[in-house]
Amino acid sequence: MAADIFTSFPRTREERWAYLRAGVDLIMSGSQISYSRYQSLYTQAYNYCTSPDTDPTTEKTESTDPQADLYSKLAEYFAADYFEASRKQAEELHDEDLLRYYSSRWSSYDTGANYLNRLFTFLNRHWVKRQRAEGRKDVYPVYTLVLWSWREHFLLSLQQHDRKLTRALIQLAERHREGGTIDTNLINNTLSSLASLGINTENVQSLSLDTYKEHFETVFLETSEERYRKASELLRAENDEYFQAAEVRVQKEKDCISTAGEYLRPETQEELRRRCENVLIGVSAGDLGIEVTQ
């Protein structure tokens, strides 16, 4: 079907969208597209935004602004139905298998999103920029729109019941902390995805870590802090010289945190070190009635 579409030169808005949609299908599927075809798609994206609809049967209404119409069609393309197959497959997966699937799908999806962002450069530079300047916080550059769709229609669905992506990440990080061999790329790619999915509606160029924190960091820090508490209790029960033993444990934990720098963000590592010291040294000193000086 795509081959038939690409052999004809679209003139009406409906034909242009069919042409562009076929191109978007190819890009998001990871298929190779020749330079000439990509240029043709770029031209049609520009034509869609700037040329009148030559179809006499098209009803001329308020919303015949071609750029608004194109943006609306892209948003509809990446609606919930687009992710149905991915959601169904992810529902059957758990733990490392889930991370492997998520990481692979994300890499392909993110690459496609970058291609589309360049393909619709004119739309971004003119209509999207103007809408944002006029206060439309629900309008995003194409790349951000595509990522927003992943978060809303795939990630949130995946996390809806038991937050199994979060659990898979923490389980793999725990195995790594305990000295197990893992594929750190799985964690790194997934956490990079979560960091990318945070959208600052006030300034889309500014990094927001809200999604990363909600779906990983907050739970990870709480889980780690609980582990430190249990370690502290065990050290108290087994050692007369608690603080000597605690200092050794803190250093061991700091070494583990440094090793996890392959995938943990620097600010997460810093907070983890702070909580480790606070629980094993600070809180424990308070419980024992000892004043700790810095």
From TrEMBL:
By its UniProt entry, which InterPro entries does this protein fall under? Cullin (IPR045093), Cullin_N (IPR001373), Cullin_repeat-like_dom_sf (IPR016159)
Q: Where is the Cullin N-terminal domain?
A: 17-283
Q: Name one Pfam family in it.
A: Cullin
The source's superkingdom equals: Eukaryota
What are the alphabetically sorted keywords of the record? Ligase
Annotated GO molecular function terms are:
ligase activity
UniProt keyword annotation of Ligase present: yes
Family note: Belongs to the cullin family.
The molecule here is called Ubiquitin ligase (Cullin) of SCF
Q: Which organism is it from?
A: Marasmius crinis-equi
> What lineage does the source organism belong to?
Eukaryota, Fungi, Dikarya, Basidiomycota, Agaricomycotina
